[in-house]
C-alpha cells in the first residue's frame, strides 16, 4: 500500500459532527490500492468498555485517490479513533502519531473527537434541503407597473446592453407567481433590488430603500407575504463588498477628502480619491472606479451593514441573503453577519458568492451555502462537449463531494446558469437533448438546485449582458415542451426525499466511455439514473439484485433478468429507475 497517499485530518471535512449524535470520519487512500479500511474507535476514558470497529465504505474516487467514510455514534458524544487499512497480506494502522504495521495501544496517540457540542454544529436550514430555487433579475422578469418605469425604458425583448433598462419590477413578479407555483419552485432568489443607477443594481447607493423603479418597501412586504402564502421562500441579494459611487458616504469622501468622517469607510491609498490612468486611488470591485470597496473592519461600516441585514428580515420577513463577492470580505465580518441574521431569523438561509473551493466559509460560523459554480462548470462541460469521458466526470464530481461535509453538500446552491454565465441552452449548442441531461443531473444530484429565470421556456443568451434577456410571456413563443419537462423533474425531486438527502454514488463511469450510471440511496427509496450523453443509440447493462424496479417517470415495471438490467437509450437519452426499500 502507498502509505504516502493516506490522509486524514481531525476536526475538519475529514472528521465532523453530522448531527448531535453522529460523527462522520473520512480517509483518503491511493486509488485502487486499499481493499478495506476500518475505523477503530473507543472512549479514551474506558476503551475496553466502549470499543467498536466500524467498517468504512468507499464512497467516492477521483483521478488519484479513493475516499472512505463511516458514521460513528459514540455513547458519550466523544471518542478516540484510528484506522486499520488492509490490502492483500498487508495491514497497517494510522493514528495521529503516524502509520505502521503494529497496532498502537489505545488511546494514547490516537485521533480524538473530544465532544459533540450542539452549539458548534453546522446547521443549515432544513427548508433549504427541500427547496427548488428560481433566480430572478427583476428588471428582466416582468413589468407590473409601467408608471414607475425608468426614463428611456428599452422595448421589452430588445437586445440587452450593459446600460439599458426594461422596466421589470416587484409588481411584475407578484403578477406572475402563478408561473412559479405551476412550475413547482419553492424559493426565489432576487438579484439586488435596492436603490442603484444601473439595471443590475450591484452598485448600491441606498441600502435602506427599494429602487423606485422596482417599487417600495410595502410592495416588497406584499410580495414576500404572497410568496409565503404559496409556500415560496424569498432570498434577497446583498452587496456588502462595495457600493456605487453615488453612495452618500463615498460622495462625502470625494468632496472632503481626508477630512471626511467617512474616509475610513473605504480603502483609500491616496487623496484625492479619483481614477488616474484607468486605476483608482482606492480599492474597488475589479477595476471599476464606480464601485468603491467598503472597509468592513471599520466598526461604523460593520454596524451599518449588519443593521441593514437585520432590518430587512425583521421588517419584510425575507428568508435569507445571497452575498455578492463574498470571498473578498473579511471572515470576521461574516461571522458577525451570521450571528446577526440568525438572531433575527434562525432559519434564514445564507448563500455566499464564492466561485472556487469554499471550505473556509462553510465551517458553520459564516455561510450555510455557496453558489456552486464548480458544479456548473463540470456539469455543463461534460454534457455540452466530448472533452472528457465518464471516468473523468465522476472523478471531478467525487472530488467536489469530498470538499465539504455531508450537511453542506445537502444544501449547496447548485446551478447550471446565472446572470453571470451564458444560458444553459446556448452553452449546449441549443441542443435540447443535452440540456435535458444536465437538468436531470441537477434535479437528481445532492444539493439545492436553482433555475435561472427563463431557462425553463428555452431562453437563450451568451455572456453578460446577452444572458440577461427579458422573460418571454407569450406562450406561443415559449418552449412549452421544455417547460413541461422542467415541471416533471421538479415534481419528481419534491415528491421523493431520497433525491434531496440520499447518498449519491456513481455505479458506472468508465474511461473511454461517456455513458454513466449513478444512484441516490436513502431510507425507504433507491434511485438509479442511466445516461447516454453520446450521439449513438446504446444498450447499457448493469447488475441489479432485485426485480422490483420501475421507471420513475412512467411507473412502468423494468425487469431484471439474470441479475442484470439492459436499458436501451436513444442518443442523449436517459432513464430514471426507482424502487421502494
What does this structure look like?
The chain is of the alpha+beta class and 581 residues long. It has 4 domains: 3-120, Immunoglobulins (Immunoglobulin-like), CATH 2.60.40.10; 132-240 and 299-497, TIM Barrel (Alpha-Beta Barrel); 242-295, Alpha-Beta Complex (Oligo-1,6-glucosidase, domain 2); 499-580, Golgi alpha-mannosidase II (Immunoglobulin-like), CATH 2.60.40.1180. Helices cover 25% and strands 27% of the residues. The protein is built from 15 helices and 30 strands. The strands form 7 sheets. The chain has an 8-stranded parallel sheet with strand order 20-19-18-15-12-11-22-21. Strands 3, 4, 7, 8, 9 and 10 form a 6-stranded antiparallel sheet that branches. Strands 23-24-25-30-27-28 form a 6-stranded antiparallel sheet.
CATH fold node name of the largest domain: TIM Barrel
Number of strands: 30
Strand content: 25-35%
Mean pLDDT metric: 96
User: Cα-atom Rg, whole angstroms?
Assistant: 26 Å
Pfam families: Alpha-amylase, Alpha-amylase_N, Malt_amylase_C
Family: Belongs to the glycosyl hydrolase 13 family.
Organism: Paenibacillus mendelii
Protein name: Alpha-glycosidase
Question: What is this entry, summarized?
Answer:
With 581 residues, this protein is an alpha+beta fold.
Features:
Oligo-1,6-glucosidase, domain 2, eight-stranded parallel β-sheet, six-stranded antiparallel β-sheet, 15 helices, Malt_amylase-like_C
Amino acid at each position: 500500500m502507498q502509505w504516502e497517499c493516506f490522509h486524514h485530518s481531525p476536526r475538519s471535512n475529514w472528521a465532523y459532527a453530522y448531527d448531535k449524535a453522529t460523527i462522520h470520519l473520512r480517509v483518503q487512500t491511493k486509488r485502487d490500492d486499499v481493499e478495506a479500511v476500518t475505523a477503530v474507535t473507543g472512549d479514551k476514558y474506558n476503551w475496553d468498555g466502549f470499543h467498536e470497529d466500524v467498517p468504512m465504505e468507499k464512497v467516492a474516487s477521483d483521478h488519484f485517490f479513493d475516499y472512505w467514510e463511516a458514521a460513528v455514534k459514540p455513547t458519550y458524544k466523544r471518542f478516540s479513533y484510528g484506522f486499520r487499512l488492509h490490502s492483500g497480506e498487508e495491514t497497517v494502522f494510522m493514528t495521529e502519531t503516524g502509520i505502521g504495521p503494529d497496532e498502537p495501544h489505545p488511546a494514547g496517540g490516537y485521533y480524538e473527537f473530544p465532544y459533540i457540542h450542539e452549539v458548534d454544529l453546522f446547521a443549515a436550514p432544513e427548508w433549504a434541503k427541500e427547496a427548488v430555487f428560481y433566480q430572478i433579475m427583476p428588471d428582466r422578469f416582468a413589468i407590473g407597473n409601467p408608471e414607475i418605469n425608468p426614463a428611456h425604458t428599452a422595448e421589452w425583448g430588445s437586445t440587452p446592453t450593459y446600460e439599458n433598462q426594461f422596466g421589470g419590477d416587484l409588481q411584475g413578479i407578484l403578477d406572475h407567481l402563478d408561473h412559479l407555483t405551476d412550475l413547482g419552485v419553492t424559493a426565489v432568489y432576487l438579484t439586488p433590488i435596492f436603490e442603484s443607477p444601473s439595471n443590475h443594481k450591484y452598485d448600491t447607493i441606498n441600502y435602506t430603500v427599494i429602487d423606485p423603479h422596482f417599487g417600495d418597501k410595502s410592495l416588497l412586504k406584499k410580495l414576500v407575504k404572497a410568496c409565503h402564502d404559496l409556500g415560496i421562500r424569498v432570498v434577497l441579494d446583498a452587496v456588502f463588498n462595495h457600493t456605487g459611487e453615488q453612495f452618500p458616504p463615498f460622495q462625502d469622501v470625494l468632496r472632503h477628502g481626508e477630512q471626511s468622517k467617512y474616509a475610513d469607510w473605504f480603502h483609500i491609498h491616496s487623496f484625492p480619491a479619483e481614477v488616474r490612468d484607468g486605476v483608482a486611488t482606492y480599492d474597488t470591485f475589479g477595476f471599476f472606479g464606480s464601485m468603491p470597496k467598503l472597509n468592513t473592519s471599520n466598526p461604523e461600516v460593520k454596524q451599518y451593514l449588519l443593521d441593514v441585514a437585520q432590518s430587512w428580515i425583521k421588517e419584510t420577513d425575507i428568508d435569507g441573503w445571497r452575498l455578492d463577492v463574498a470571498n473578498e470580505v473579511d471572515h470576521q465580518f461574516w461571522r458577525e453577519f451570521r450571528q446577526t441574521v440568525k438572531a433575527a431569523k434562525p432559519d434564514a438561509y445564507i448563500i455566499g458568492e464564492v466561485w472556487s473551493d469554499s471550505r473556509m466559509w462553510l465551517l458553520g460560523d459564516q455561510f450555510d451555502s455557496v453558489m456552486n459554480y464548480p458544479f456548473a462548470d463540470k456539469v455543463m462541460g461534460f454534457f455540452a462537449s466530448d472533452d472528457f469521458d465518464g471516468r473523468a466526470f465522476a472523478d471531478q464530481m467525487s472530488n467536489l463531494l469530498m470538499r465539504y461535509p455531508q450537511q453542506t453538500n445537502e444544501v449547496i446552491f447548485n446551478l447550471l446558469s446565472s446572470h453571470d454565465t451564458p444560458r444553459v441552452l446556448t452553452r449546449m449548442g441549443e441542443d435540447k437533448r443535452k440540456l435535458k441531461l444536465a437538468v436531470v443531473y441537477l434535479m437528481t444530484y445532492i444539493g439545492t438546485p436553482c433555475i435561472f429565470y427563463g431557462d425553463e421556456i428555452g431562453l437563450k443568451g451568451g455572456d453578460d449582458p446577452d444572458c440577461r434577456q427579458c422573460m418571454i410571456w407569450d406562450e406561443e413563443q415559449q418552449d412549452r415542451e421544455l417547460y413541461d419537462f422542467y415541471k416533471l423533474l421538479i415534481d419528481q425531486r419534491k415528491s421523493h426525499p431520497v433525491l434531496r438527502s440520499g447518498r449519491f454514488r456513481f455505479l458506472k463511469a468508465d474511461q473511454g466511455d461517456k455513458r454513466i450510471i449513478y444512484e441516490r440511496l436513502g431510507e425507504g427509496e433507491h434511485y438509479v439514473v442511466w445516461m447516454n450523453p453520446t450521439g449513438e443509440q446504446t444498450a447499457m447493462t448493469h447488475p441489479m439484485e432485485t426485480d422490483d424496479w420501475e421507471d420513475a417517470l412512467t411507473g412502468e415495471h423494468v425487469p431484471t433478468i439474470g441479475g442484470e438490467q439492459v436499458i436501451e437509450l436513444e442518443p442523449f437519452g436517459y432513464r430514471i429507475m426507482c424502487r421502494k426499500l
